[in-house]
Amino acid sequence: MNLLETRRLTKAFGANRAVDGVDFTVRAGELLALIGSNGAGKTTLVNLISGLVGADSGTIVFDGQNVTHQSIHERIEAGIARSFQLVNLFDQLSVRDNVALTIFARQGKTRHLWAVADRDGAVADEAMQVLRQFGLEPRARMAAAGLSQGERKLLDVAVAYALRPKLLFLDEPTSGVSTREKAPIMDVVTSVVRQEQITAVVIEHDMDIVFTYSDRIVAMHQGGILAEGSPDEIRRNEAVTTTLIGSPPPS
Amino acid sequence: MSPAPARPGLLSRLELGGAAAAAVVLLAVPLVAAPFQTITVCYGLVFAIAALGFNLLLGYTGLLSFGHSAYFGMGAYVVAMLVKYLGWTSMEAFVVAGILGSVLVAGLFGLVCVRYTRIFFSILTLALSQVLWSLALKLFWVTGGTDGLRVPTPTLLVGSLAPTSDKMDFLAYRYYYYVLVLFVVSVIVMWLIVHSPFGKALQAIRDNETRAEFVGVQVRRYRWIAFVVSGAFTGLAGTLWVPLNGLTTPDILYWQFSGRIVFFVVLGGFKTFWGPILGAIAYNYLETYAVGFTIYWQLVLGSVLVLLVLTMPQGLAGTVDALVRWLRRPALT
């Protein structure tokens, strides 16, 4: 079953067609990797689907409903969440409050002016539970600005995850951290996603990470889809290996 | 790092102690100080309410308003108009009407202003407040123009406390306590707002507007609500200020007065809850004494303020906070 389908989705910035008539499909329950060189249109595609930028033409159907013209807020309520390539956190709030805010927002409680946020035990417990899943519990009371880069990447994912989405976009969850830190971050993220049966789309540059963790891969090039298939198929795909990886397919 | 309790208390022991001490001092002021002194403190409390409202935008939502004179002035002019045209005298009626008037103006101005952030927001708030100022100036047959409107001392508590013949005495006792009660209520209400889930959402908007939108906070709508609440507090301050001053003129709608509110908050420290309160009271004292001390009071005031900002960039409250942390630092072993 397809959770998300885009049809002829197009977005141009001036003369540059960043996303050019893309038919992109995400199947329910899979962990999909979206790969491609810089400027291939990966992030623009995610921006279109999550509602950060509006589409020029084409449609986006999520979970059976046409969300092409919905606001960010409506798409979140429908079940689409995302993290960001450059970490986007609430730096002056505590690590716990970063997650708690998401939970308050999800429950519609951010409209409450009279309740003391810290006295909401259910939300605090859930926030701590989420932090535990991401290994951030010991940092709960620290300001988010004080975390290490690797921890910030994890918290960024945790904040999006706390929305309990059906579809979670992770824009380069391991960018900007050392090679040594990449696998531990992906281990945590993929185990949470699989355990909670969330469909996830990961944008990633590191091919080792992509081949290790994903069920299926979609490769983009110059605003279009170059190839899609299982990791093995993509590894053997000549178009992909020559344009993206820059070496001939392994014999 | 010391182990912290799982459920933090609502107020730290230091905050509770400080608030209790401040309450005792404020309650005792009229009993121990001369009426003039008490009235000076009373002005300070009124400005503190305005500063609290202002800081909901600057400190918690990340929006620097340069037009809060509009709401303060609205609170004041509503009272003056009700006195002049309807002959009202009840302070409670003034308070309700003053808040409603400033909410109305903040609601309208907010619709335009919250579409922008940073300097664009500041300039828009400034420009809109100047519109009100010029209206107060030009429609002199309604507003009294530069002469302003006189406001006699009101009756308190639904007419049960009528003004006494000694106006100074009335202001320094009955009216002081009246303002003190409303000040305490304002502090409690604002404390609740900034610690509510709504308050957390505002801080999230301040830290990262895009991300706030992507966790489901409707950024523009929340900014507008914050704008209106902020205007309501500042409007209440304007309403309470008129009887003290006995007169309202277009000066309090002018951008310089907005600048003064900004200064209260920068002086006290906008990153803390208590900073704006401290700043407003301290500034008011400074100005009162500088004026009495020399005709070059603006020079004195300016120099002192520049010095304070240079030496205490975190403001008074931020400096006290840092001092307490330093005193409580773990001993090196």
Main beta sheet strand tally, sense and closure of chain B: 2 strands, antiparallel
- Strand neighbour order, sheet with most strands of chain A: 7-8-9-4-10-11
> From the helix content, strand content and strand pairing of chain B, which structural class follows?
mainly alpha
Which blocks of ≥5 consecutive residues of chain B have pLDDT under 50?
1-8
Shape annotation of chain B: globular
Quick one: overall form of chain A? Answer: globular
How many distinct helices of chain A? 9
How is the largest sheet of chain B built, in terms of strand order? 1-2
Mean pLDDT across residues of chain A: 88
Structural class of the secondary elements of chain A? alpha/beta
Work out the radius of gyration of chain B: 20 Å
Number of strands of chain B: 2
Q: What is the helix tally of chain B?
A: 14
Oligomerization status of the protein chains: heterodimer
Largest protein-protein interface: A-B, 41 and 28 residues
Q: Describe it for me?
A:
- The complex is a heterodimer of chains A (251) and B (333).
- With 251 residues, chain A is α/β, with parallel strands linked by helices.
- In chain A, 37% of the residues lie in helices and 24% in strands.
- Chain A contains 9 helices and 11 strands.
- Chain B has 333 residues and is mainly α.
- Chain B is 74% helix and 1% strand.
- Chain B contains 14 helices and 2 strands.
- The longest helix of chain B is centred in the middle third of the chain and has 29 residues.
- Chain B is globular and about 60 Å long.
- Chains A and B meet through helix 2 and helix 3 of A and helix 7, helix 8 and helix 9 of B.
